[in-house]
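Entry 14. Two folds queued back to back today. First construct below, sequence then structure tokens.
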Amino acid sequence: MLAAMRILVTGATGYLGRAIVRAVIDGGHQVIALVRDPAAAATALGELAVEPRKGDVRDEASVRAALDDIDVLVHAAATYSYARRDGPRMIEQNPAIAEAVLGAAAAVGTSHVIDVSSAGVFKAHPDGPKAGLTDDESPLWGPSDREWNDPYLCSKVLAEQAARAWRDRGLPISSIHPTLTIGPDDRVPGVSGAILVSLLADPCISIAGNANWVDVRDVAAGVAGIVGRSPGARALFAARELDFRGMAALLDRSTGRRPRRFWLSAGITRAGAMLNDVVGGALMRALPSRDTLEFALGVGHVDGATGEATIGRAYRPLEETVAESLTWWAERGTIPRSWAGTLVEAATR
């Protein structure tokens, strides 16, 4: 049986961070959270038995202090937003956060760092037997790619490059790369959850985008599985590829509803995004930039076998994840109960 360890988690109060904390505690380990506001963190983490340590991931000195008597560092903190105004901030902060946190771990000699990156840093293999497939050996996006102009993608690639540079210098790093992460406890739906919420709306205007999905609890279980292993793992988490039309159909089967949906063709969406870019997003705030849109339209199949191996079981079925997500939101008023349809009707009788 694996001996209990002391695990420092950055980003512990975020959606994925909370799931990681829960999974690591369930694995018998003690969690210490690096937080800027211990009182706010206590509220966010609720009943979870977590020791808060005050600090800032942007300040290497405070991270070094927090790493005292720590066995494993799980770095899950990042700036994540697709609001246009946040683009420059992400590009500046995400690689800087990676440098500060990983530099601190190197300075104090942390024996294992688990870096939470994103599957979005990889592009599909351009040729050969894996042409069109994205896996953990795929190349990274770069400045010559149009998609590089997506601020989130760019910021995560820069952070990934920082992590790889520290690995080359001898820092013992494992890295995980989730695709769109959904599931219960998404209190203020982020980008992934917001796609589901938007497809539930009546009426709904959507694009013919594509995506790969995974349950947040599976990603967290993968992190917990890596905790007790030797450093060096690289795991990509993707349970299922399903485009937005397919996800809409899954939502309808789950809820028994059929919202009115208006699907925009790729051509119309591109033209609208270009015009929206010209006016700084004033035309439609929910419409992504042209460069972000190109990334969404071009997503192909992602191989999540390495992530599944770290869990030690099959991924949860996407139908189960979606049903539990909608029920969780409906029971807490995040979405109207009517949007969850038959998932919550029995409870209201």
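Second construct, same run, same settings:
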Amino acid sequence: MSGIAACLLWQCVFAGDVDTISIYSNSMKKNISCVVITPDSYKKSRHLFPVVYLLHGYSGSYNQWIKIAPQLKNKVDELQIMIVCPDGGYSSWYFDSPVDSSFRYETFVSREVKDYVDKNYHSIADSKHRAISGLSMGGHGGLYLGIRHRDVYGAAGSIGGILDIRPFPNNWDLKKRLGDSICCKQNWENNTVINLINNLKNGELSISFDCGLQDVFIPGNRILHEKLVEMKIDHDYVERPGAHNYPYAKNSIDYQLLFFKKFFERESSANL
């Protein structure tokens, strides 16, 4: 068998396992679904794996990523990582809402899901081997949670993320999560990614975000990039052809996962 044929056969035979699990959220008193993707080698050894948490967009659900990017089943084998896709509700924005106590998705993702995964899976349970990212609303969530929980995640990213929510006071249920942007203005100021980086120091979080050139949300991405440059905070920022859609996200996620893999390897080698 030729080397090329053997390689193709290997790719066909080995692929990660995709499981849908239910995690009870004590903060919201309900069961919430999550997708967990583990590499083929997961069941064959007690090896511990880094974990990438991927967040879905507005109106999406826990299975959005595996639908739009089926290559994730192969990526976990290629990169030897786990991927966890928690359900963030139709429009949670991954907040612990200051106006609706029934929405505690910040707590759910960054504490309850993380604790469940570390207890029930072969994960490396430290921030140097955890990353978080997402698309659109989930891109906001990836950087929002990454910045706010630097003790949990060592790396964070965003794909076509809505990184400044303030220009959209009447869109996507944001008012339901934060209150009216006039009477509850401080809620909006305190919970937009563009402001959260004010307390970020260089080296505290490894950051990668990108946006399509035809994406309507590229202005906010550019402003965040410029602000990070001004603050001298190292980060990766990429603009590439594409719009705010699933084909763009499907392509982009491969680059983000590679960025996270290099982060995991760098942190592991630093501890040797």
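Quick look at the second one. The longest helix spans residues 246-270. Strands lie at 17-25, 30-38, 51-55, 82-86, 130-134, 155-159, 206-212, 236-240.
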